[in-house]
Design goal:
alpha/beta
Length: 193
């Protein structure tokens, strides 16, 4: 029999009803927005976009770094951005009170720093931080979310958009059976995440 090794992560993009591009370009700096030409004397000073990145784990995880790089690629090239990063560190400190304490730091930073946008990775950041800002007007961008958007009220939010992380194992096995009908075994290789 044939031995197949696979790794699959399916992505589903969930859009919000009010796209971030509807906000003023100076406020968001989303790729694809245009700004009128102006001379240096006429040009207003554009303050850097303030973006808070809240991750459920720590920034040293490779997939978090890759997701953040992808997020940055979606911003307007050359746009000045002031990033702040906050780690909930739920892998090393999984107790709910420890996560809540880290989330309280995120809420305090949002209150004091007033970011233009929050970018949150993985479900714990949505549960403890992102879901608290649904309907507030603060744009929420999420990634690597395993649960349904309704879990965090994102399905009805006009200020949230992002990418789900879902494994489609049954559909993948059905496809592999059609592609290699003689296969006797399928081996799935995964990590401890």
């Amino acid at each position: 029999g044939a031995m197949l090794m696979m790794w699959l992560i399916g992505l589903l993009v969930v859009g919000c009803s009010a796209p971030l591009t509807d906000l003023p370009p100076a406020a968001v700096g989303v790729a694809g927005t245009t700004q009128p030409s102006a001379t240096m004397e006429d040009a207003p000073t554009i303050e850097p976009l303030r973006i808070l990145h809240v991750t459920s784990y720590t920034e040293d995880w490779g997939w978090i770094q890759e997701q953040f790089a992808g997020f940055q690629d979606g911003l307007e090239p050359g746009r000045a951005v002031d990033y702040r990063h906050l780690e909930l560190d739920a892998k090393n400190h999984p107790a709910p009170d420890a996560i809540a304490a880290a989330a309280a730091e995120a809420h305090a930073l949002i209150e004091s720093w007033q970011p233009n946008l929050i970018y949150l990775t993985d479900d714990i950041a949505q549960q403890y931080v992102g879901s608290q800002y649904v309907g507030t007007g603060l744009p929420i961008v999420f990634s690597s979310v395993n649960l349904e958007p309704a879990t965090y009220q994102y399905d009805q939010a006009d200020n949230a958009t992002g990418v789900l992380e879902q494994e489609h194992s049954a559909a993948t096995i059905q496809l592999l059976n059609r592609l290699v009908p003689d296969a006797q075994r399928i081996i799935m290789v995964v990590d401890q995440a």
